[in-house]
Please model this.
Amino acid sequence: MDGMVRRLRVSGSGFAYDAVIGAPAREAIAEVRALLIRDAFAVFVDERVYSLHGEYMDGIFAGFEKYETCLVPQGEEHKSYARAEWALNWMLEKGLSRRSSVVAVGGGVTGDFAGFVAALYMRGVPVIHLPTTLLAMVDSSIGGKVAVNLAAGKNIAGAFHQPAMVIADIHFLATLPGREFRNGLAEMVKHALIGDDDSYRILRRASPEEIARPELIAEAVYHSVRFKASIVQRDEREGGLRSILNFGHTVGHAIESLCGYSGFSHGEAVALGMRAEIEYSRRAGLLAEGDRDAALDLIGRYDLGIPNGGLDGRRVMEHMRYDKKNRQGTIRCVLLEGIGRPVYDRTIDEGLMRQVLDELLA
Ligand SMILES: NC(=O)c1ccc[n+]([C@@H]2O[C@H](COP(=O)([O-])OP(=O)(O)OC[C@H]3O[C@@H](n4cnc5c(N)ncnc54)[C@H](O)[C@@H]3O)[C@@H](O)[C@H]2O)c1
Model:
C-alpha cells in the first residue's frame, strides 16, 4: 500500500491544504486530528457508502470520541437547499459549535452538499473531504466549489469553500459500479486532453480492465488531481484559465438539462460533449485530423460518450443557448487546437455545431 501513497499541496490566495491519494483514510485523517478534536465534528456520509463500508468507516473514526453521523440519501435531488437548511438545524441540535468541523464521505453529491453546509454553518467551519467516487476524487473534491440545487437549476446556491484536507482512499473504489467508474474516467480523459500529459500517457497505455487496478488507478488519480489543482491554483474563481475545465461541458450540460438530469450520467454527457467539441474543433480548422482521431480514440477506448439514439441535435442546441456561461446571445465553448492545447471562451458557429451534433447523435 505504501507504494501507492502520494501527496500534493494545493495552495492559492489565502488557502493551502494537502490532498493525500492512496493512503488508508484512518492513517491520513490523523493529520487533521487537532482540527477534529477542537470540538465534536459532523460526518456527512452517503447512505450507500455507509451501507457498504460502515465497518471500515468505524475504523477510520475509531480514535475519535465526539462526532455525529448524518446519512445523506443517494441522488442529485437530495443536494437541495431545503435539505441543507435541515442539516444546519441538525448540526445545531447536535450541539456542534463554531469550533466544529465537517467531514464529507461520499461522491460529489455528498461533498458538494456537506461542503455547502460547512461554508454556511456559523459563518463557516472547516470541511475535510473523503471522496468515494472516482469523479469526486479527481474533480469535485478539489477546487473549493460547493453548492446545492434550487428548483430553478443545478448548483445555483453555492460558495467557494476550500477544504482543510482531501483524502482519496482508493479502498472505496472497489465497490463503485462500472457506470460510476466511467463517469470519473470521463473527467480524467478530459484532463488528459486539455493538458495533463501524465494522464494522457497512462490512459493511452492502459486497457479498460487494467486502469481499475488499485496501483494504476491511484497513480492516475494522483496525476489528475495534480492537474486540476494546478489549474485552480492559478485561477481560483474561474476568471479565465479555469474555464478550460469546462471542455465537453457546454454540449454536456445541454444534454443533461435536455434529459432532465436522468438518462445520461454527468460523465456520459460530458464524454458526448467532448466528442462533439473535438469534431467541431476539427471542422472549424483548429484541430489537425491526427489529433482529432487520437482524442476520439482515447474517449472510445474506455467506451465513453456513446449516443443512445434518443437525442435531437436541434433541441441540444436550444439548451446550449440557455447555458449560464453564455454572453450576449452567443454560445461559447472550450475547443482544442491540439492534444493538450485547449482554447476557451470561443464563440461557436451555430450552423456548424448543429451539423456536428446531427451527425454524432444520428
Ligand atoms: N464541486 C465541484 O467542483 C464539482 C465538480 C464536478 C461535479 N460536481 C457535482 O458532483 C456530483 C456528482 O458526483 P458523483 O458522480 O460522485 O455522484 P454521486 O455522489 O451521486 O455518487 C454516485 C453514486 O455512487 C454511489 N457511491 C458513492 N461512492 C460509492 C462507493 N465507493 N461504492 C459504491 N457506490 C458509491 C452513490 O451512492 C451514488 O449512488 C454532482 O452533483 C455534480 O454537480 C461538483
